[in-house]
Design goal:
Elements lengths: L16 H24 L17 H87 L6 H4 L7 H12 L4 E2 L8 E2 L1 H10 L9 H4 L4 E3 L9 E6 L2 E10 L2 E7 L3 E6 L7 E4 L2
Parallel strand pairs: 1-2
Antiparallel strand pairs: 3-8, 4-5, 4-8, 5-6, 6-7
Helix pairs in contact: 4-5
Amino acid sequence: MSHTAHIPSHRKPRRSASKLAFRAGVAGGVFSTLAVAGAAAPANAEPVTETTLEMPTLGSLEADLASAVSASAEASQQEALDQSLAAQEDAALQKAAKDAKKAKAEADRKAEAEKAEKARAEARERASRTAARTSLSAKSSSSSDSSGSADSSTGSSQVATGSAAAIVAFARAQIGDAYISGGTGPNSWDCSGLVQAAYRQAGIDLPRISYDQSSMGTSVSLSSLQPGDILYWGSRSGSYHVAIYVGGGKYVGAQNTSTGVVERSLDWDMPSGAVRLL
């Protein structure tokens, strides 16, 4: 290195005199102001306490807003849940009331059906007892007094044969069926409807009305009856009731709504006459 090389100095550069004078003046002014203020203040004046106001930060506001939104959402969700539960309770109560009403109606219906069935059973039992008593009475009357009975001449040993057997068998098969005015079967009959259907078994077509049926064939006396003969009540051309003689002093006929189709002794209700078509 040459002796003439420049070596940088490590000393601070000197400030200019003007800058130093300005800074000294400013500092002096400040210190003088402080001195005057200190002299003017009371001797016992309390030191001034500095109050620091903390301003909320942006992060704090966002947290508070999120908390408020969350609380509002929870409240709305709870309210919706309460309303849903209330609606479900109302629906359950309405369904329970409807089911209870339906069950009561069904129970009432069953009770009425059982009551009606019991009444029908009692009616059938009474009818059976009445028919049994009537049959016994008729048999007793027939056996004790045969003088006025057509069975005295025909006897109780008559057996239907041929077409008469078919007619008698059909008539007896309908015993117990109901009586209905205008009935022609298969489970309900009136008197002429039963006679007409019975004769159809033998291939014989009869008129529908009782007085027309009694006007056919040949008139026979009640003392000469044969199975299959048509019995009538009233005049032959104006009869109001007909039945079929089945032998043994008995007949089968659709009597009335109380008895239906029954088998009776001639003594129970003596017919006015009879006709024979076989």
